[in-house]
UniProtKB/TrEMBL annotation:
Residue span(s) of domain Resolvase/invertase-type recombinase catalytic: 3-149
InterPro entries: DNA_bind_recomb_sf, Resolv_N, Resolvase-like_N_sf, SSR_resolvase
Phylogenetic lineage: Bacteria, Bacillati, Bacillota, Clostridia, Eubacteriales
CDD domains from the UniProt entry: SR_ResInv (cd03768)
Coiled coil residues, start to end: 392-448
Keyword vocabulary terms for this entry: Coiled coil
Name of protein: Resolvase
Keyword Coiled coil belongs to the record: yes
GO terms of molecular function: DNA binding; DNA strand exchange activity
SUPFAM superfamilies, alphabetized: Resolvase-like
Length: 502
């Protein structure tokens, strides 16, 4: 038995186009002649342009195709699917990956015919060629712009703003000067960030401070800066003039630093000194958080939602033995804490509690081991998952009620004068709008259900639970835990875990 999806679309802007009902009937007749034993599901989008692929019913159809719940997609014309060639070719490729046939009943586009197979082969070739050409043209264009020392687009760097000509210009020179001067004078990052936030109302988030300090767009070009950039793997182009800065661009594995048309601000000696200090910190710190912690990607703080990080603290204590000799006792303490807590003065979370590594990891391990019991897993999984079926059923009931009301009002109109019937016509129009809105909500909820099925598989999660054991490596434990849980929220007050499955 073939599972057939009939897709029909009619734009509100085109008068005289074939009605959706006619398109559906023609598609059914065509398929039943070829595959008598077929089941149909109809997907209708009315009032949407073919240039827009983000149509509710069409998106639902695509998700079902990805779930391999459709064998054939049939339409009146190819432009019902998409009008943009590249959009259509991408959709066609997705259908092919999921063994879905696409048939256009009026254009002879049918993979079951010899001509249809030839058309598919040609389209696949054109798709690959078109994608390659577009990618290459974009890369060539950006590289050409970059080599001229011009801004290639995107969000402007900190301290800059976009200008009307498509380039960038300075927006806050004083702030950038303060950033580099404070770093040059060995200010702590926390002090620097607080100062900048207080003075300029600009907050450096995550690693944005380090990114800013690394960018050569701020430094005046010089032979010494070019030499440093070359040591970092850049190909330097252009003539250094101690006035203009550098723009960087990456083409495949090649990094370019090009003397730009943007006036630099920071003196070469200061910029190089700051960057060399950062190089030393990297080599000294290595990996800030030890690889022996396997919950850092999954455990989250209940207070702020941040992930937990793992740290190891070593303490040395002097003592004297019975002979009076001085000895040093070394103790190592490994723990998890809210990532926000390690930000020092910049922390905003109220959770300052540290949890011993072995205690928290044993607690999560015990949880996973308990889920190996299929009954416990099924119970936990069903509670954890949001079920939209009740909402969908309720909305479908509303649609039926609206249809009945419209039918009753239509019957009454036939008995009234033209003037009196206008009131009922307005009511019917409002009900039709309400029905359309409800149907859109239904499709949205159905899409959520389908997306959930695509992204996760209950059986796969349970298999990962069964594969977990305490003898695995740290990396394997981390990977398996991340494949089971989207997040594990730890409550430091109650010591409870609240899990969300993938």
């Amino acid at each position: 038995m073939k599972k057939v999806a009939i897709y029909s679309r009619k734009s509100v802007y085109i008068e005289g186009s074939v009605s959706i009902e006619t398109q559906i009937n023609m598609c059914k007749e065509y398929i039943l002649k070829k595959f008598t034993n077929s089941t149909f599901e109809v997907f209708e989008d009315e009032g949407f342009s073919g240039g827009n692929t983000n149509r509710p019913a069409f998106q639902k159809l695509l998700r079902l195709a990805e779930l391999k719940q459709i064998d054939i997609v049939v339409c009146y014309k190819i432009d019902r699917i998409a009008r943009n060639t590249l959009d259509f070719l991408n959709i066609l490729e997705m259908f092919k990956e999921n063994n879905v046939e696409l048939i256009s009943i009026t254009e002879g586009f049918d993979p079951n015919t010899q001509m249809g197979k030839v058309m598919l082969t040609l389209l696949a070739s054109f798709a690959e060629m078109e994608r390659s050409n577009i990618q290459q043209r974009v890369k060539d264009n950006l590289l050409s712009i970059a080599k001229k020392g011009k801004w290639t687009g995107g969000s402007p760097p900190t301290g800059f703003k976009n200008n009307p000509n498509g380039g960038i210009e300075w927006d806050n020179k004083d702030m950038i000067l303060d950033v580099f001067n404070m770093k040059y004078e060995k200010s702590k990052n926390t002090d620097l960030i607080q100062f900048i936030q207080h003075k300029y109302n600009h907050k450096f988030l995550g690693g944005t401070l380090a990114t800013t300090l690394r960018k050569p767009i701020y430094v005046k070009s010089s032979s010494s800066v070019s030499l440093y950039l070359k040591s970092k793997g850049y190909i330097v182009q252009g003539t250094e003039d101690n006035i203009h800065s550098y723009l960087t661009y990456t083409d495949k594995d090649t990094k370019y630093a090009i003397v730009s048309n943007i006036v630099g601000l920071i003196e070469p000696s200061i910029w190089i000194s700051v960057n060399k200090d950062m190089d030393k910190n990297i080599s000294r710190e290595g990996n800030r958080f030890s690889e022996k912690f396997w919950l850092t990607k999954t455990i989250r703080c209940k207070c702020c939602g941040q992930t937990y990080c793992g740290q190891t603290k070593t303490t040395k204590t002097k003592y004297y033995n019975k002979k009076g000799e001085e000895k040093i006792y070394v103790s190592t303490y490994s723990y998890y804490s809210c990532r926000d807590a390690v930000r020092g003065k910049l922390k905003t979370c109220t959770n300052t509690k540290r949890v011993k590594q072995d205690v928290l990891e044993a607690k999560v391990s015990a949880l996973i081991y308990s889920l190996k019991d299929e009954k416990i897993f099924n119970s936990s999984y069903s509670i954890n998952k949001v079920d939209n079926s009740f909402k969908i059923a309720s909305l479908n009931k509303k649609v039926i009620e609206i249809d009945k009301t419209i039918s009753n009002l239509t019957d009454k109109i036939a008995l009234l004068s033209n003037d009196a019937s206008l009131i009922f016509i307005d009511k019917i129009e409002n009900l039709i709008k309400e029905k359309s809105s409800i149907k859109s909500n239904i499709v949205e909820l159905e899409l959520q259900e389908l997306n959930s099925k695509i992204k996760t598989d209950k059986a796969l999660i349970y298999n990962n639970i069964k594969a977990f054991n305490n003898n695995l490596s740290v990396d394997d434990k981390r990977k398996i835990t991340m494949s089971i849980f989207k997040k594990i929220v730890y409550d430091p007050e109650t010591n409870d875990l609240d899990v969300t499955f993938m």
